[in-house]
Design brief:
- The chain is α+β, with helices and mostly antiparallel strands and about 120 residues long.
- It has a single domain, classed as Hypothetical protein (Archaeosine Trna-guanine Transglycosylase, Chain: A, domain 4).
- The chain contains 4 helices and 6 strands, in the order E-H-E-E-H-H-H-E-E-E.
- A 6-stranded mixed β-sheet has the order 2-5-4-3-1-6.
- Helix 2 packs across helix 3.
- The longest helix is centred in the middle third of the chain and has 8 residues.
- The radius of gyration is 13 Å and the shape is globular.
- It starts with a strand and ends in a 6-residue tail after the last strand.
């Protein structure tokens, strides 16, 4: 299955169904279920952005800061067709993948991230 890396805490709120799209500077034809890999490197502006967009998500996240620091494969979601516009308060990129059916794993699965979409085989996990 394909995976994509997101910087914390974006991966956590996508998998928790609190963010309904994933912003990208590039477009692809991929649609479907995708593992969410959360990198070790934080988006340093994320918390300010989340507070500005949705205070309730910010509070939810502050209560789960240990999970926000997970790295590796942390869950999965389903990406819809990539678009250059989506009616979402979370859309602030050139392109976005609508996200649905997020699922957060009980614990992260150690895995090295890559740029773009990459193949992941979690047999044995």
């Amino acid at each position: 299955m394909k995976a994509i890396s997101l910087q914390p805490p974006w991966g956590l709120i996508v998998c928790a169904n609190l963010k309904d799209c994933e912003n990208r500077d590039w477009r692809s034809n991929f649609t479907g279920e995708v593992y969410i890999h959360q990198s070790k490197k934080w988006d340093r502006d994320a918390m300010d952005t989340i507070m500005r967009v949705d205070r309730n998500v910010y509070i939810w996240l502050m209560n789960r800061m240990e999970m926000a620091q997970w790295y590796g494969i942390i869950g999965k979601t389903t990406f819809g067709k990539c678009t250059d516009y989506i009616q979402s308060r979370w859309f602030f990129g050139k392109f976005a993948y609508p996200c649905s059916n997020g699922f957060l794993f009980d614990k992260p699965i150690p895995y090295r991230g890559q740029l773009g979409f990459f193949e992941v085989n979690l047999n044995g996990h």
